């Protein structure tokens, strides 16, 4: 297959997947046991193995696997024991799942404008903020605010990223969430995982995610005196098996991204109207982020890359100030829950300039994915193809 074909057929915005029958020992093990429910057996389940490995690798206190990162966000939010209608500060530039998780937990999102790197700007947070979600978008490590009791790090697009102090993204806040959706760094189709250093919070999360019960593996669930209601967010053994298999490749994947990023730093055009945005050492280098001098040039570059079959995207879709769910305060509840609890006297968006600078940055930004699984010689060719397309703009 030609390189063009291989790149065109990836359909993988971020990261890679390593699905290969010759590498599925965990899945074979689970099928061999003939038990796909994690709490059916008393020994270590595949889900527990995954949680243990992720916690070890990321230096997290505790981990819990669930169905997806949206559910993990909800679980984290509810486990802070909020009141209905409490405010949650979220990035103005992120996937709408963050707002959906806040709203479906009965809480009210407040959009916080971005800094230069398009991450939530912590200097905009009010002194009384109690719950904040920061998102490490596209592997870009966002600043984690200090002095807020419940910071939830959304690492759906940043598995393996590190903060400047060396800690892994997801372990600096009160909780961190990860996604194994198809479009993320590693994939099991759908999948989510939550980490926290707070043992009490983990126990609460584990109960809520299993019908509010204090289940002993191998037994029927039990509810003690201070049990609360819950939901069923318990993962499956076959999914955990694929996640374990994928997770084995994390270091290989991170190295492949770093290698292609280094190639790109060397091989891109030097135009005065185009800048490759530098990435920090701890970022997961899932993409090259370009900043053009104008929106017109950016749009011309999109056309040029697309015409040549080179995957690319813009980030305008992440601007939640324009999202209909938020602008229209949409809800399925007849009384508009939980928007009907939104305070009338406080703004639900925090920005110094009405998001003007963020809009301008988004309008001029263009992203091109990196392909970690390619051998270096093919990464060089892929970068060359990108360079030629950008020179033609
Ligand atoms: C994909 C994504 C989510 C949701 O993840 P799922 O596992 O698909 O629920 C949340 N936040 C961000 C930033 C994402 O990119």
UniProtKB/TrEMBL annotation:
It comes from the Bacteria. The keyword Hydrolase does not apply. One of its GO terms (molecular function) is transaminase activity. Gene3D superfamilies: Aspartate Aminotransferase, domain 1, Type I PLP-dependent aspartate aminotransferase-like (Major domain). It holds the Pfam family DegT_DnrJ_EryC1. Its cofactor is pyridoxal 5'-phosphate. The keyword Transferase applies. Keywords: Aminotransferase, Pyridoxal phosphate, Transferase. Belongs to the DegT/DnrJ/EryC1 family. L-glutamine:2-deoxy-scyllo-inosose/scyllo-inosose aminotransferase subfamily. PANTHER family: DTDP-4-AMINO-4,6-DIDEOXYGALACTOSE TRANSAMINASE (PTHR30244:SF34), TRANSAMINASE (PTHR30244). This is DegT/DnrJ/EryC1/StrS family aminotransferase. It comes from Streptomyces luteireticuli.
């Amino acid at each position: 297959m030609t390189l063009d074909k291989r790149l065109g057929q990836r359909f993988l915005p971020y990261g890679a997947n390593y699905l290969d029958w010759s590498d599925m020992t965990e899945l074979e093990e689970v099928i061999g046991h003939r038990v796909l429910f994690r709490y059916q057996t008393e020994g270590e389940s595949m889900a527990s193995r995954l949680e243990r490995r992720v916690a070890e690798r990321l230096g997290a206190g505790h981990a819990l696997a669930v169905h997806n990162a949206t559910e993990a966000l909800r679980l984290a939010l509810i486990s802070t024991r909020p009141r209905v209608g409490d405010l949650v500060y979220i990035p103005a530039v992120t996937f709408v799942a963050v707002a959906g998780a806040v709203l479906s937990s009965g809480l009210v999102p407040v959009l916080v404008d971005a800094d230069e790197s398009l991450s939530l700007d912590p200097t905009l947070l009010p002194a009384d903020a109690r719950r904040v979600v920061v998102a490490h978008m596209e592997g870009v490590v966002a600043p984690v605010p200090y002095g807020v009791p419940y910071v939830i790090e959304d690492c759906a697009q940043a598995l393996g990223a590190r903060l400047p102090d060396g800690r892994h993204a997801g372990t600096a806040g009160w909780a961190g969430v990860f996604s194994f959706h198809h479009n993320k760094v590693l994939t099991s189709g759908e999948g989510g995982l939550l980490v926290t250093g707070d043992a009490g919070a983990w126990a609460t999360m584990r109960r809520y995610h299993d019908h509010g019960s204090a289940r002993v593996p191998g037994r029927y669930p039990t509810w003690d005196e201070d049990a609360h209601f819950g939901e069923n967010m318990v993962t499956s053994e076959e999914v955990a098996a694929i996640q374990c298999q994928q997770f084995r490749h994390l270091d290989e994947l991170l190295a492949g991204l770093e290698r292609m990023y280094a190639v790109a730093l060397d091989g891109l055009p030097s135009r005065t109207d185009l800048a490759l945005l530098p990435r920090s050492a701890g970022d997961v280098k899932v993409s090259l982020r370009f900043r053009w001098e104008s929106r017109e040039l950016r749009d011309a570059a999109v056309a040029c890359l697309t015409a040549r079959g080179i995957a690319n995207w813009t980030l305008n879709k992440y601007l939640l100030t324009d999202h209909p769910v938020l602008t229209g305060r949409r809800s399925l509840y007849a009384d508009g829950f939980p928007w009907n609890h939104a305070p009338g006297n406080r703004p639900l968006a925090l920005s110094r300039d009405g998001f003007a600078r963020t809009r301008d940055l988004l309008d001029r930004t263009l992203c091109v994915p990196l392909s970690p699984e390619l051998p270096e010689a093919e990464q060089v060719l892929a970068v060359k193809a990108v360079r030629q397309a950008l020179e033609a703009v």
